[in-house]
Amino acid sequence: MSESFKKYSLLIFTFILLFFAFLVIRADLQNSNKKFSFSMFDVGQGDSLLIKSPSGVQVLIDGGPSEKILSALKKEMPAFDRSLDAIIITNPDQDHIGGILDVLKVYKVGTIFESGTWSDSRTYKNLEEEIIKKKIPNILAKKGMKLDLGDGAQIDILFPDRNVTSWPTNEGSIVARLSYGNVKIMLTGDATNKTEDLILKENSKEKLQSYILKAGHHGSKYSSSINFLKIVSPEYALISVGKNNKYNHPAPEILGIFSDLGVKVLRTDQLGTIIVKCDKIGVCEINK
Questions:
Q1: Can you name the residues that pair with 284 across neighbouring β-strands?
Q2: DSSP for 124-139, written as a single string
Q3: Which CATH code for domain 34-287?
Q4: What residue segments make up the domains of the chain, in order of their start?
Q5: Quick one: pLDDT at residue 180?
């Protein structure tokens, strides 16, 4: 093979690599919609949400019950992106943390926020050990904290407002409101009616009203009380739930309340991953 042919082949090969790299970068730029994005992943009977602000900040809330979260993240994050600015663990139950250990093995995580409740499960112990091993800052979420996501997007922690170490994990769940311009999304984790009552007592209607509600505890009858729903007054309720689950979630009575109040219900067991994209003036698209 002549020297000139080798050089020519190398040049062609280099050009092809650059061309494909250009296509990947171009696709990422096109897909990185400047709108605010909120995804509720279809992870079965569990919770996992991804927030992407227009500034590029990415926050994962819970990791579902298993490694299924990894394939969900790959679909919603740009190619070659292996970093998350933060992970919020609303409570340490398996259906919220089961996939986070797998996430930590693949993604670089800036900060982790926890509620303060704890579990004696092996999954939780392994997760805490990995957080320490990777030296990831681990912060106790408290009412009044504001997480700036850039470009006007913000997460306001509403609960816990006290030490919940000895509380049942669901009652001690992190509850927060996500804001982007006129768009408000209430994130309730597995919060129960007791937690909702505490939040209602300590916050004005203005601080709670939200366009979208992430329904508490997969639509359990012990969450989403009518008093809480009347104050939050969502247009949509998003329910993360597994098909034919043994808990009979979402509860028929809760679906009845949503219907009576005119709240549109979207469920992952029926629609798969639910993606909401919004601009600052409050115009949203829901990709079912």
A1: 278
A2: HHHHHHHHHHTT--EE
A3: 3.60.15.10
A4: 1-31, 34-287
A5: 95
